[in-house]
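To the wet lab folks,

You asked to see what we're planning to order before we commit. Fair enough. Below is the target structure as tokens, and below that is the sequence we designed to fit it. If anything looks off to you, flag it before the synthesis order goes out.
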């Protein structure tokens, strides 16, 4: 698919142009995330979950932006080939800079995932996307596009925010309609069906984590950080951190439709 046609399938393409265009080189340092700190429980939980499925020597992240996660995958699992693909030149520049500051080798490819270089198609053991597919109105189509990067037997790992029937949907829609409208709400059934429609074998598809009100920070990315809504947001993030403190010390709380911040789907290319 040509880039101009791709824009018709996204919800808010200009949102990302504005976001990455506002970033500066100074924003893109690299800091090792202390996974022993309970405040980083969401990140350590994701890395632990990802480690269960990490396979092979070739990993690609679709819509990589200036991904810290991709760099940490390289540092922790050390696959021979690590590729970050994004269609925005600003995002690609920031990812190169972050990788350079982290001292790791990441191949950055600035291309549309619908029309990637032939050298990327069918060549990866692990294909990851985080917060990407929910920006597209045709979910089976975008999953099919992403799955093309996987080798036969390769893993397709997809994570999206839980914005269908959750408290995050209600709050985001109320606090910042523009941000909310940049997403298409999907649930685990939608994600599962889309992966199966793409010819993938679904290993598991479910809600992930118990809570993370910090995911609503996007609601205030273009608004003053003041007023009762922002103050409520701050208090809710503190509640999440209290829960993470308990979970790290004792056990993880259940994942639920109402409070889980994310949905994760793990599938295999047949």
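Sequence we intend to order:
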């Amino acid at each position: 698919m040509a880039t101009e046609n791709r824009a018709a399938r996204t919800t808010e393409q200009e949102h990302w142009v504005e976001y990455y265009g506002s970033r500066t080189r100074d924003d893109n340092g690299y800091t090792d995330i202390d996974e022993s700190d309970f405040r980083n429980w969401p990140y350590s939980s994701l890395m632990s979950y990802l480690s269960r499925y990490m396979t092979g020597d070739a990993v690609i992240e679709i819509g990589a932006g200036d991904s810290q996660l991709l760099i940490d995958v390289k540092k922790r699992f050390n696959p021979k080939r690590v590729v970050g693909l994004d269609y925005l030149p600003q995002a690609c520049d920031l990812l190169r800079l972050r990788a350079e500051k982290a001292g790791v080798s990441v191949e950055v490819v600035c291309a549309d995932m619908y029309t990637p270089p032939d050298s990327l198609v069918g060549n990866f053991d692990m294909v990851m996307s985080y917060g990407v597919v929910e920006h597209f109105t045709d979910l089976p189509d975008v999953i099919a596009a992403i799955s093309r990067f996987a080798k036969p037997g390769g893993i397709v790992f997809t994570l999206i925010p839980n914005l269908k029937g959750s408290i995050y949907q209600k709050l985001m829609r109320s606090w910042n309609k523009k941000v909310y409208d940049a997403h298409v709400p999907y649930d685990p059934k939608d994600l599962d069906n889309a992966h199966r429609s793409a010819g993938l074998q679904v290993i598991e598809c479910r809600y992930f984590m118990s809570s993370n009100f910090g995911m609503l920070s996007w609601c205030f990315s273009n608004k003053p950080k003041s007023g009762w809504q922002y103050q409520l947001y701050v208090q809710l993030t503190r509640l999440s951190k209290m829960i993470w403190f308990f979970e790290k010390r004792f056990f993880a709380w259940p994942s639920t439709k109402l409070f889980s911040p994310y949905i994760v789907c793990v599938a295999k290319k047949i």
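Structural context that might help your review: DSSP finds ten helices and seven strands in the chain. Strands lie at 58-62, 81-86, 107-110, 124-130, 150-161, 200-208, 262-269.

Thanks,
Computational group
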